Amino acid sequence: MAETVNFTGAVDRELLRRAKVLAAKSDTSVNALFNAELRYLVETFEAAEASNNQNFRTLLDFALGRIDDRQTMCSLGIDSDEDLFLLMAQSHLPMPRLPEAKTRGMVDELNELHKQA
User: Fold this and answer.
1) 9-26 pLDDT, tens per residue?
2) How far apart (Å, rounded) are the C-alpha atoms in residues 71 and 102?
3) Domain range spanning residue 26?
4) How many CB atoms lie within 10 A of CB 96?
5) pLDDT tens digits for range 27-44
6) Same structural domain for residues 46 and 60?
7) Chain-centre distance of CA 67, in angstroms?
């Protein structure tokens, strides 16, 4: 068995609560859930990288909000949102967030509207 190490991280309080419920229902620990998910993410990324396939990296960038849906679909050669979301589910990645710049722009627009009112 591999040597384990402790590390410190931060997680959303509500997410941790939900993870504890899932762990209890699954008769396991949050630590075991975290390790399984992190292992899957790393091993999938490494396998894709070893085969020179950038699709997983593209999907990961999309999940992290680094690229938008149109860039992702163009890079992957798909033309429907349904196919993109199916790939996200099959890749076992979280659903995407808006890119930070886009979110900031939307907040700025809303603040401007509020000032005008």
Assistant:
1) 898 899 899 999 999 999
2) 14
3) 13-53
4) 20
5) 999 999 999 988 988 898
6) no
7) 12
φ, ψ of residue 25 in degrees (nearest 5): -65, -25
Cα 18 to the chain's mean position, in Å? 17
Residue 48 sits in the same domain as residue 92: no
Residue 115 lies in a domain: yes
Which tokens in the block code for residue 109?
């627009």
The string of DSSP letters for 3-16 reads ----------HHHH
76 and 62 assigned to the same domain = yes
Using CA atoms in the order 6, 10, 11, 17, what is the torsion angle rounded to 10 degrees?
70
Q: Is residue 88 part of a domain?
A: yes
Beta strands in 1-117 (DSSP E): none
